[in-house]
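Minutes, project check-in

Agenda point 3 was the complex the collaborators sent over. CS summarized: two entities, 692 residues total, and the question is how they sit relative to each other. Sequences were read into the notes so everyone works from the same version.
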Amino acid sequence: MNQTTSNFRNWVETQSQSDTSFVLSPELRNTSLTAIRSQNFPTRKDEEWRYTPLKAIAESSPVALVDTQISPQQIEPFAKAVPGAHLLVFVDGKFSSALSDDLSSQDKLGLNIRLMEDLDSESRKQAEGIIVHSKLTDDNIFRHITNSLATSGLFIDLKPNADIEVPLHLLFVNTKQTSTSVTHPMNIIHLGQNSRLDIVQQFASLGDLQSLSFPADYIQLDDGSKLGLYKVGLESEETDHISNCAVQVANSASFEDHQYLLGSKLTRSNLEVNLSGNGAEVFLRGIYLGDKSQHLDIRTYIDHAQAYCSSDQHFRGILNGKSRGVFNGMVLVREHAQKTNAQQSNKNLLLSRDARVDTKPQLEIFADDVKCTHGATIGELDDNALFYLQSRGISRQDAAQMLTRAFAAEITDEIKIDTLKEYIQQEIESRLTETHKLNA
Amino acid sequence: MLSIKDLHVSVEGKAILKGLNLEVKKGEIHAIMGPNGSGKSTLAHVLSGRDGYEVNSGSATYKGLNLLDMLPEIRAREGMFLAFQYPIEIPGVNNTSFLKKALNEIRKHQGKEELDAIDFLDLIKKQMKLVEMKEDLLKRPVNQGFSGGEKKRNEILQMAVLHPQLAILDETDSGLDIDALRIVAGGVNKLRSDENAFVVITHYQRLLDYIVPDFVHVLSDGQIIKSGTKDLALELEERGYDWLLDQPETVA
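CS then shared the predicted structure for the full assembly.
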């Protein structure tokens, strides 16, 4: 144990020893606490974290959370993203039954949603089994912090053949606390054979507040099942958000993930997908839209472990002000993963001289009968296109906004939930309007 | 309507237009012909306000306004239109909503009421017949995946919808087969009136079989070296440019 101590590390240690009722079993917590104690807090010297500034987190001194009551009106601006969805709301990490739909009302459809703290021993064993069997190549400190400190969590268990039409909307709202607060949203998701579900995970803040959020998701998709997962980040400018999501995709199962990183001071999204069955599919889309000094960072790791699998990922960055975007994507095709079809694309649009992007699409192939492509671009708005629009009577500012909107729309058009698509397009639009006004 | 006097323009320090004069009045069609590199496209770009062209001296006025001081979008809103030699593909921007936005910007500027979606659709469908364009091209992004001929027809469609007072056609005939050429020219002919004017820039005489100009000018090395009627175009077709280039002192 040669790690340096820091305010934050000390806080984690103190918290873990407190008499709080933690949600995971002592065995799992101990494993994670050992992992925390034996590793350094990541710095820029760590290859996986070389672009991500974590100093502010390391030096932060969080405070204990104070319960805040909020009204349905306060969450309406976020809830409207998916009207009619089955809505579950967490306020400062705590489940709010007052603001949420009934947890067990979906049981009759085969969708069992339970708080981890309420699980019977058999279900707990099942849920924790998914954590134990998840594989993460970047086994970073943040998911272990969540494993050891989470006091609540969701276990979403969909029965075989259940086909759920209505999306599940998980809304995580943070409220203003006396100083920096920390939340640990945890979701364990299991889809039985040939079942289907869409989940929207939305992260938001009420007011300007400093918070740290370390979501951890563990997902297991059984044969032939289909999960659509939408992550929408709209947190305040003082929020740091580091999420870890580990997904196992079995035979002919399909995982579709859309990420819209629009808020926060810093977001780092780690997504690792293990295609562990023949014919498994993963489809990833996302946009990071930054301004001012935001840092938005997406890391994906796709492990083609079996044959006949496909992965298709396309992420776009739009960076203004002094913001910074990072895309770090790895596609690994193992020796026996023949007939793999893997596509990876990252395109970035810089709207200001001070904005910056680091992109690192990577491909490692050990099989010989595969079709793989990857590529990245970084550019500015196309002068020829701007002039073309101007020559038709459209102002340069409007033209710039049209082109930027179009750049984003090629990704947002892929959102399969219509109301959510509209909501996200509006969120992007309002941010771009602000951006182009400032640049005009 | 358009008055260009002794215009000198350079690109990256290299002189391209070297004292160009041109007068265009309402109701007239002017053809500007000339060999490659004579400055034809530079003229079109300078008139439409493209960056990267340095006006060293001379003037260009349009409807009495100093054209060279106006932003490209203001020129368009004042009724100027450039049909591009190479129309730009704009992924993600829908052809119809782009054109509706453009038309309404122009209408707003001219103090007219903006068209709503229904009225606009009526208008555009009518104009599409003029250029024999397939309706599904309206649903596509601007020029994306269009064939060469479709792109040029899309330019003429935009011209028909925006209804300019002065249209500059920059080598609209290049790369067109004879059928497309006839359709494009037919569009122009239906739009011509006593109230508007056209400047048709072309390398070949064949477009002028379909769009009959009132005046033909020969541009060479940045100057108009000869002006005449449509007969001049026929003579150029027969004899080429060389007989004119040998006598550069013949200034129109």
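Noted in discussion: Chain A has two domains: 7-277, 383-440.
Follow-up: revisit at the next meeting once the mutant set is ready.
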